[in-house]
Amino acid sequence: xxxxxxxxxxxxxxxxxxxxxxxxxxxxxxxxxxxxxxxxxxxxxxxxxxxxxxxxxxxxxxxxxxxxxxxxxxxxxxxxxxxxxxxxxxxxxxxxxxxxxxxxxxxxxxxxxxxxxxxxxxxxxxxxxxxxxxxxxxxxxxxxxxxxxxxxxxxxxxxxxxxxxxxxxxxxxxxxxxxxxxxxxxxxxxxxxxxxxxxxxxxxxxxxxxxxxxxxxxxxxxxxxxxxxxxxxxxxxxxxxxxxxxxxxxxxxxxxxxxxxxxxxxxxxxxxxxxxxxxxxxxxxxxxxxxxxxxxxxxxxxxxxxxxxxxxxxxxxxxxxxxxxxxxxxxxxxxxxxxxxxxxxxxxxxxxxxxxxxxxxxxxxxxxxxxxxxxxxxxxxxxxxxxxxxxxxxxxxxxxxxxxxxxxxxxxxxxxxxxxxxxxxxxxxxxxxxxxxxxxxxxxxxxxxxxxxxxxxxxxxxxxxxxxxxxxxxxxxxxxxxxxxxxxxxxxxxxxxxxxxxxxxxxxxxxxxxxxxxxxxxxxxxxxxxxxxxxxxxxxxxxxxxxxxxxxxxxxxxxxxxxxxxxxxxxxxxxxxxxxxxxxxxxxxxxxxxxxxxxxxxxxxxxxxxxxxxxxxxxxxxxxxxxxxxxxxxxxxxxxxxxxxxxxxxxxxxxxxxxxxxxxxxxxxxxxxxxxxxxxxxxxxxxxxxxxxxxxxxxxxxxxxxxxxxxxxxxxx
Length: 717
Description:
Blueprint: H1 2-73, H2 80-93, E1 97-104, E2 110-115, H3 128-136, E3 139-146, E4 154-162, E5 167-174, H4 176-183, E6 192-196, H5 206-214, H6 217-223, E7 230-235, E8 242-251, E9 256-264, H7 265-268, H8 270-301, H9 305-316, H10 332-352, H11 354-371, E10 375-380, E11 383-387, H12 389-395, H13 401-404, H14 409-412, H15 415-430, E12 436-440, E13 448-460, E14 465-476, H16 478-513, H17 522-552, E15 561-564, H18 565-575, H19 577-582, E16 586-590, E17 600-603, H20 605-621, E18 628-635, E19 639-646, H21 653-656, H22 677-687, E20 691-696, E21 702-709
Parallel strand pairs: 16-18
Antiparallel strand pairs: 1-2, 1-5, 3-4, 4-5, 6-9, 7-8, 8-9, 10-11, 10-14, 12-13, 13-14, 15-17, 18-19, 19-21, 20-21
Helix pairs in contact: 1-8, 10-11, 16-17, 17-22, 18-20, 20-22
């Protein structure tokens, strides 16, 4: 009776527990919807970004061609006939270049006019906006677009540049293939991509695309954003169809284009809606079915469960005579009772017959090994005593496991893989602690990389050890290697793509500082200086990440040339004078009274300057207001010592050993930075054959020191 009450309470608790499960299921569906929407927008943004990069690369390639032609025509040692011949050859090698013309600036008279044989139209009369811009500007380009009703139409780019004060060069290139490629990029099955300019002209997709995008909110929003990417949901004002779209700008020197991508929301989120319906149906069905099953199962279990409990207690005490148990019927409880009786019988047999128990263990071991995805091979001497199916496929897919067991490894292994695998096994037997990584081609079009590990298996007895064999595990790490390569490519892409805009920012800031764009007032001067400092800091951070990548891959190789450390030190100090004055920090150079040639060392100027800037930047950051930073040079017979001393709070002794490691910052005291600067300094100095260390006393500041070998001509015995 008590058991029945407990089961009823249990059923009530189970039913109540279904309610929060339903709530949680609905919340999961909602969270999943947000993730799918975010993923869809991210996919479109990535497609737009990739196409924008492709368009920009194509246009930059055209400007490079024009620059090449310009340089060729400016060569003084070539005759007019030779230059004309070179132009003809260049047109033949570049079929996308439709024509090239050399025109007199004053009269518009053509000196040279060359075009492809199958191209009938020429630049013609040099007038209008193109001619006026060409006479006024040094270089530029203009789009010529003739749309058609069914096709992408004809898209040309006319590029121009100044040869000298008298002549202009024009080049027309066909970009119709680029527009067609954008049209054919049907991402996610139904998505479309378009190229537009500042006037909203659509360069691909035909008249239908032009009409559709003319009044589109996507076009208007994209044109307002000349430097940022984005995505939005919008409605076509003509058809009221809802779309999801993205844009990515193509920033050029004198113009901006945009890549637009769009897809109807019904197509973009079709899978999401289907998943929501299935998830909700499954949740309701599972809740109802679970409640019914639990109710009836608990009702049927309540009577015989005590009998099973008493029988289990007997078996736990070693008594296998459990007496009669009712197992009539075919319901779950009857099946459980039958299974329980069979289990007790088997347990008694295993207790009486040790061989059967050992057989069961062996069977379980073989099943486990067979279910492993890694290839497992066990050898006794040179004979195969155990292997799973992945190992069979790896060694010789043409044989069965039965053919391989108890056979010599050398006799059954595939001849094409025999030398590679036997060599790896030999090296592992010789050095078990070093894993072997091998790559081979299972088929002509696939490549596989394996990590091979080895362990000698032994069975321990009371007073002896029984050798079992040599176990080899072949793990497929092809995907890991591909991911590692992708990570390397990603680091290269991020660091180099950040370098280019940073270089542009630095150039514009220099133009503002030198007054080329007009004088700046004091507030503007201060803002520009802060911008310059921020760009310098960001550039240093990007360089640090790239340098650590090079260090980890053994690519940090300095270009050693004679350089003067005194001049490098003076240049480095000059860069911090402004910030030192602002913080009332005394910035001094000591040890500069020796002959100039005594500071000559073999080093990579850029890398050593980076070291000086990193160390001086750290010293400035941790030096208080009205403090002192001192850079000291110490020429010695065989090397040159450099010390950078600050008057900060010093470094605890327990933290010194962590400073030159990756992300080695002092906990609780680190300021802005990546924690990579000192690691890079250490690797650079050691790559030069030098040594770097730090000396510090808490409360009395720190001194970072390093030595570099002198130039060979300056070393003395």
